[in-house]
């Protein structure tokens, strides 16, 4: 098992090294060619069952793929995550599950309205009309909207894209809808779906942490100041070493037996700090896109702002207080 | 000293709110270009009064509170002026007057591709040949580098066993033969400011271009940092207060009352208040010509970390709302505070050195 996982890890890393140019992805987006490539490799729909043309991989393999891809391109990892961890559970078991085949093979793009949490839009009598603001993935052909009746909306959509701070390769903006909808569920399932996605979301955070940290370690090994390598300044190397412990513990939690609630909380608590410090260690260079570290800081804060807040802390707290105590 | 200037503060705030609209701020952030029309406007309205450092501090703070990219763009055309004011010759002071009047833009080049923290290790040389100096080398990340008319440049004029000796400052005309500047693009934040890499290829400088005495440049620059770090602390306070404004309105508008949010609000407020006290205290020594470098470095390091802290808190408290409004720009602008004019690590080294010196 361990060996298989290592082989998978290496395969994904090799693929990323060859095909993922994050600077290009950040400016041009994830183009059709790359989407096809991800589909052919079985990464696009990796956790979606075979019958929907996915790869039907287990949770660990799925998370390994997300982790490795996030090291190179948090944007691509996020696209895979949205399909496998949000779109798939939203349409699975409904008449809309037919769309999964085209989504897993990259024929259509999908998006999930998970940023807005509660939208005011109502899908009245099978139609949705109006502006849906702040959608990550305005290039989508199908969109899942979470409102009081979770719905699938089919394109084409008119859209307007705007600059976005994080996961820049995913087009971001507003959709102008006058479309028919398919009701997937009578209730808003976003919170429940998100809870089940704690593992995969942590895998993306882990990939970002590992990569931002490795860049800092590599840089402090070569950059000199005051006649020494930066690694020789202990406040710098101590901090990076402590971050490595965080990374290793996170990885072991994720792939081990730790409750995903705790893993996710741990990942979110450390992500921004490590990404930020990677920028610091690069000095002025860290502030420029060319060095490839500021993007982790941007993506990190975006991820934390979207996925983690009072609501998640309340869930975690309920989880802790409802746990059975292990002694009599 | 600062309370007396409340009217002036209000005037600056009014200007910033009127001119730094979301559209303008977003446009210059996106285009990554310098808003020269705003610089001219600010001059005609007397927004920046370089003769009065307390006013400069307030202007920086209030402008950055509304938008740090534009705010810094309007307050850095004078960057390096203190070196000329304190040590320059008459001719250089004439040029400085034209800088104040808005005829010229100034900048200061210390950092090089091989390092910024370790100032004395710089590689740019100005070798004396007869009554001229020949400048060779390069500078990195220089604010206004590609738009400046004049630059204060630190270069090595002689080798010395003490690396702090043998460095000198020059006032370089950017029209000089052998000078070139390449604009650096794709910064995380403060994108309305111009940043460039500079090349000096056998530039001839006259003795009149030397600022102050030969060999004393390192000390002039350290003296300059005593002043400029106060201004970075002011930029940081401005950014932190801007983030705090966003947090407060979000909490009020959404009628948020939970205790956790209240604690976050109070943490940000407390750190801002501490930053203000530290900065104004350090500034009051400086403005009476008795700078205390440790207080300055404490104020700079603490305020810059507060700017980053407040910006990150704003991102998190506003949650998804923060992602597409001006808050994300505040977040991107904040990070530079911990880098320029001495990283937090360098400030800590200064603080420790002075603490032990005082024992
Ligand atoms: C947008 C922008 C504008 C700028 N404008 C100007 C300008 O106008 N003029 C100018 O001269 N410079 C300017 N700078 C440069 C800035 O001042 C430097 O980037 C900064 O001083 C750090 O230098 P460095 O980038 O070479 O980092 P380095 O000196 O290489 O430092 C890298 C990392 O190592 C750490 N480090 C270094 N030494 C030690 C130590 N002894 N102990 C512990 N840690 C240490 C640093 O804190 C940092 O985290 C600008 C930079 C930017 C990004």
| Whole-number mean pLDDT of chain B | 96
Radius of gyration of chain B equals 20 Å
CATH topology of the largest domain in chain A: Butyryl-CoA Dehydrogenase, subunit A, domain 3
End-to-end C-alpha gap of chain A: 37 Å
Protein described:
By secondary structure, chain A is α+β, with helices and mostly antiparallel strands. Chain A has helices at 2-19, 22-28, 32-40, 59-72, 74-91, 99-104, 190-196, 198-222, 234-255, 260-281, 294-307, 310-322, and strands spanning 110-113, 127-136, 142-145, 151-154, 158-162, 172-183, 224-225, 228-229. Chain A contains twelve helices and eight strands. Chain A has three domains: 2-104, Orthogonal Bundle (Butyryl-Coa Dehydrogenase, subunit A, domain 1); 110-188, Beta Barrel (Butyryl-CoA Dehydrogenase, subunit A, domain 2); 197-321, Butyryl-CoA Dehydrogenase, subunit A, domain 3. In chain A, α1 (2-19) packs parallel to α4 (59-72), α4 (59-72) packs antiparallel against α5 and α10 (260-281) packs antiparallel against α11 (294-307). With 359 residues, chain B is an alpha+beta fold. Chain B folds into three domains: 3-75, Butyryl-Coa Dehydrogenase, subunit A, domain 1 (Orthogonal Bundle); 84-215, Butyryl-CoA Dehydrogenase, subunit A, domain 2; 219-357, Butyryl-CoA Dehydrogenase, subunit A, domain 3 (Up-down Bundle), CATH 1.20.140.10. Chain B has helices at 6-19, 22-31, 36-44, 53-66, 68-75, 81-87, 90-101, 217-253, 259-287, 293-318, 326-334, 344-358, and strands at 106-109, 125-129, 132-143, 150-156, 167-173, 179-183, 195-206, 210-211. In chain B, the strands form two sheets. Chain B has a four-stranded mixed beta sheet. Chain B has a four-stranded antiparallel beta sheet with strand order 2-3-7-6, with no helix packed on it. In chain B, a hairpin with a 2-residue loop joins β2 and β3. The radius of gyration of chain B is 20 Å and the shape is globular. The mean pLDDT of chain B is 96. Classes of the chains: A alpha+beta (328), B alpha+beta (359). The interface between A and B is large, with 40 and 41 residues. Bound molecules: flavin-adenine dinucleotide. Flavin-adenine dinucleotide sits between chains B (107-111, 115-117, 141-143, 187, 190, 195, 336, 339-340, 343, 345-346) and A (223, 225-226, 230, 233, 235-236, 280-281, 283-284, 287).
């Amino acid at each position: 098992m361990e060996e298989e996982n290592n082989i998978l890890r290496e395969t994904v890393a090799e693929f990323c090294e060859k095909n993922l140019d994050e600077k290009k992805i950040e400016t041009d987006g994830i183009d059709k060619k790359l989407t096809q490539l991800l589909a052919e490799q079985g990464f696009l729909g990796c956790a979606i069952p075979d019958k929907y043309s996915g790869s039907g991989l287990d949770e660990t393999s799925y998370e390994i793929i997300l982790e490795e891809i996030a090291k190179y391109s948090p944007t691509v990892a996020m696209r895979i995550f949205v399909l496998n961890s949000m779109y798939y559970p939203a349409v699975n078991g409904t008449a809309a599950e037919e769309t999964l085949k085209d989504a897993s093979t990259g024929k259509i793009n999908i998006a999930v309205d998970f940023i807005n949490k509660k939208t005011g839009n109502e899908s009245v009598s099978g139609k949705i009309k109006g502006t849906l603001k702040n959608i990550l993935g305005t290039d989508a052909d199908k969109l899942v909207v979470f409102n009081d009746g979770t719905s699938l909306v089919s394109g084409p959509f008119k859209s307007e894209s705007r600059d976005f701070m994080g996961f820049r390769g995913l087009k971001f903006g507003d959709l102008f809808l006058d479309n028919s909808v398919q009701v997937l569920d009578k209730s808003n399932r976003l919170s429940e779906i998100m809870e089940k996605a704690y593992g995969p979301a942590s895998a993306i955070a882990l990939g970002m942490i590992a990569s931002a940290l490795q860049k800092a370690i590599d840089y402090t090994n070569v950059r000199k100041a005051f006649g020494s390598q930066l690694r020789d300044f202990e406040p710098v190397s101590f901090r990076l070493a402590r971050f490595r412990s965080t990374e290793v513990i996170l990885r072991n939690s994720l792939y081990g037996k730790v409750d995903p609630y705790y893993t996710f909380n741990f990942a979110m608590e450390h992500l921004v700090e490590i990404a930020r410090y990677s920028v610091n260690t690069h000095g002025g260079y860290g502030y420029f896109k060319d060095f490839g570290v500021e993007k982790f800081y941007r993506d990190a804060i975006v991820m934390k702002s979207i996925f983690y807040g009072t609501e998640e802390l309340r869930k975690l707290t309920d989880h802790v207080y409802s746990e059975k105590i292990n002694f009599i | 000293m600062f309370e007396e200037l409340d009217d002036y503060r209000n005037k600056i705030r009014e200007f910033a709110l009127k001119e730094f609209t979301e559209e303008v701020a977003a446009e210059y952030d996106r285009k990554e270009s310098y808003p020269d029309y705003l610089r001219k406007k600010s001059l005609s309205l007397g927004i920046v009064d370089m003769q009065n450092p307390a006013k400069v501090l307030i202007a920086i703070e209030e402008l950055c509170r509304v938008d740090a990219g534009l705010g810094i763009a309007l307050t850095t055309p004078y960057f390096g002026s203190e070196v000329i004011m304190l040590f320059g010759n008459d001719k250089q002071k004439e040029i400085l007057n034209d800088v104040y009047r808005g005829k010229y833009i100034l900048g200061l080049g210390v950092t090089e591709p091989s390092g910024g923290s370790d100032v004395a290790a710089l590689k740019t040389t100005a070798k004396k040949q007869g009554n001229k100096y020949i400048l060779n080398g390069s500078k990195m990340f220089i604010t206004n580098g590609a738009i400046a008319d004049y630059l204060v440049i630190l270069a090595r004029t002689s080798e010395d066993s003490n690396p702090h000796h043998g460095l000198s400052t020059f006032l370089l005309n950017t029209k000089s033969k052998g000078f070139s500047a390449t604009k650096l693009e794709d910064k995380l934040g403060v994108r309305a400011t111009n940043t460039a890499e500079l090349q000096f290829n056998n530039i001839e400088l006259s003795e009149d271009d030397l600022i102050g005495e030969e060999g004393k440049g390192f000390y002039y620059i350290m003296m300059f940092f005593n002043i400029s770090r106060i201004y970075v602390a002011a930029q940081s306070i401005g950014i932190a207060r801007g983030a705090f404004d966003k947090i407060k309105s979000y909490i009020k508008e959404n009628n948020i009352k939970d205790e956790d949010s209240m604690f976050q609000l109070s943490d940000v407020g407390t750190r801002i208040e501490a930053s203000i006290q530290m900065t104004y205290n350090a500034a009051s020594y400086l403005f009476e010509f008795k700078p205390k470098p440790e207080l300055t470095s404490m104020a700079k390091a603490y305020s810059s970390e507060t700017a980053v802290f407040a910006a990150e808190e704003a991102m998190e408290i506003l949650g998804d709302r923060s992602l597409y409004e001006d808050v994300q720009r505040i977040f991107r602008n904040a990070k530079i505070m911990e880098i320029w004019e001495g990283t937090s690590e360098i400030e800590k080294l200064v603080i420790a050195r002075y603490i032990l010196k005082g024992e």
